[in-house]
Every structure is written in structure tokens, then in C-alpha cells.
Amino acid sequence: MFRTTIPLGRYAGVAVGAHWSVVIVLALISWLLGASVLPAAAPGYPGSWYWITGALTAVFFLVSLLAHELTHAVLARHHGMGVKRITLWMLGGVAELEGEPPSPKADLLIAASGPAISLLLGGLFLGGAYLAAAVLPPLALSGLGWLGVTNLILGVFNLLPGAPLDGGRVLRAAVWHFTGDRARAAATAAKVGQVLGLVFIALGLAETFLLGQWTGLWLAFLGWFLMGAAQAELTGGLARRRLGDLRARAIMDPHPVPAAGWFTVQGFLDQTAGTVRHRLFPVLSFDGRPIGVVSLAELTRMTPDQRLATRLSDVCRPPQLVDAGERVADLLNKVSLRPGTDLLLVVEQGRLAGTISSEDLARALELAALRGQDHNVPAS
Ligand SMILES: [Zn+2]
After folding, report:
1. How is the cofactor bound, as the UniProt entry phrases it (predicted)?
2. Per residue in 46-84, pLDDT tens?
3. Whole-angstrom Cα distance, residue 252 to residue 345?
4. How much distance in Å is there from the Cα of 157 to the middle of ligand 1?
5. Which of 65, 145, 212, 261 is 20–30 Å from 102 (CA)?
6. Any binding-site annotation on 19?
7. Contact indicator for 171, 179 with CB cutoff of 8 Å
8. 267-296 pLDDT tens trace
């Protein structure tokens, strides 16, 4: 989902990163607290104190978000799912999970654990503010109180029953439990998610234009994002159903044109690239192992001198390897292939068996869709 993030380290074995837009949240919360919330709640301090407390509170808010996502991630891993990473961004946090929850119960636990931690944190912050009321200065108490209330709101908001919110996953788990049909359950949760998104947009616009509150725009933007994500879940679910048990080896190009990693870039252009109709090439080591991917677009950025002096193995990107027996439906969750840039290398027993480009994936999806409508289309 997010290609460029600032790494923030690993927690409980999960890589955490921040998208640049998280800076907007930090600035917005600091500004909201420093300019209005804190001065109103605890008057009489020098102006800079409000800003410092506001910024500190904003950082603690991000840490609360991280705790929410980490809880999802740890429970997902406990139930055998993969966790790619956690990303913090403008609209909160995202734990990118791989694979599917094994049972409705696992689905429920993974989904409900995040909001549960937010509610718990909210209670702890408010309880802490209450207990420390006699010792802490009013400004610190206001910050704690804001964190408490915000975490409670975050917990409740995430429990709204539409995908991709956590409440949507809870709904999915429930429908799955009662009908035994996971795909239908996911579609139900996604449809409710679309309705929720529409409601947020309407409320946000009403708040902005009827009440003159600019924060309404944020709600409308959130609604717009939710609608898009719910739509993506609907189409993704449909695609997964249609792909069924199709494996990577069935959709790969079984005759890839490999590039020799020990060649110079110019040698590769003369010997290989100029003679075939490809823009992306798998790069092999001298002993035949797949070691990377190179695109013609990348090589255009090199000077003629560099092309003569550089080996292909030194300029290729590390490969995304997939096993030939991997289900294409699972691949959809894991990879996003940019046309002309990304190429999956399909390996069988350590050797390159084929490649999958965005075109190959799109073709597989289109054929699966056509097969879903008309049984006369031959299988590829
Ligand atoms: Zn969550």
C-alpha cells in the first residue's frame, strides 16, 4: 500500500514504518492542542508550554496507534498469518497482514484486539489523570485527559461494523460463523463499509458547510477513503473467488529471457535486450540462481561510460521470488506490480521457472472473470 516509508524499527518482531503524511497528523494534533484545546482546559501558562505539551501529546497519540496495530499483528501471527509491516500514516495505522485468518474465531480475536487495546489505553490515561490529579500540573492532566478521550473515541470508531474498519472484520467473523461462507461474509462487511463511508462523507460535508467546522473535511476525506477501501475489498474478494485454486505456474511466462548478471550493462543491451520484445528481465548469477530484476527504464538513467563499466548484477534490484505452487489468489494480497517496473520471479526447486508481470496478472484476472461469466472460454 505504501511504497516509501521512514523505518521506525522493529517491535515484537514486526517492522514499523511511517509514511510522510504522518507529519501532517503530528502537526495538526500539536496545533489543535497547543492553540485551542490546552489553553482552554488549563489557562495561565506561557504560550510555548502549550505547544510543547501539545507536541508531546501528539507523539503519545501515535504510540497509542502503534500499540493498537501491534496488537492486531501479534494476534495475527499467533494464528499463523504473516505480518508484512505496520505503517503509520495520515488516517491512523495499517497492519499489513498476509494470508487469511484460519477460523471465524481467529478473525474475531485479531479484529477485536486492536479496539480493545485502544479502549484499555483510554481507560488507563483517564484513570491515571484522575489518580494523579493532586500531584500533576493542570496542563499535564489536560494532555492525559485528551489522550484518554481520544483513545476511547478511536476504540469505539474502529468498532463501527463496516470493512475495512475493525468492526467490519468483527461483522465478517460473525456472518462467517453463522453461514459458514467466508466469501459472502467478507462481501457483506465490505458493503456495509461502503454505506459507512457514504455516511461519513455526508456528515463531514454537512459539518463543513452547515456548521462551518473545517474538521468536517477530514471526516469527509476519511469517508472517501473508507468507500475506496471497501470497494477494493469487494472486487478483491470477487477476484479471489474467481481465481480459485489457480497456481503461479499456470499464469507465468514459462519462457523468460534471462539476463546474465556477470555481463556489463552494455553487453546485456547488445546481446540480449536489443533482440527480444521485453522491457523487464530476470537476472541470473553465473551458477543460474535468480539474483535480481532489471528494467530498460532504469538503464536509461546510466551514462554510456557507466554502462560499459558496470556489471548487471551491480545495478539490478533484489528479486521478488514466488514459489511455482503458490496460489495466485494469495499473491494478490502480497504484491502490487507496477507495469514496466516490477517482475515476479517464479522459482521451482531454486531455479527460475518463469516470470509474472503486471500484464500476466491482469490477463489471469480477466480470463478468470470471463470464465466466471461464460464456460466456453478455454482455460489458459
Ligand atoms: Zn485496528
Report:
1. Binds 1 zinc ion per subunit.
2. 878 888 888 999 999 999 999 999 999 999 999 988 888
3. 9
4. 10
5. 65
6. no
7. no
8. 999 998 888 889 999 999 998 899 999 999
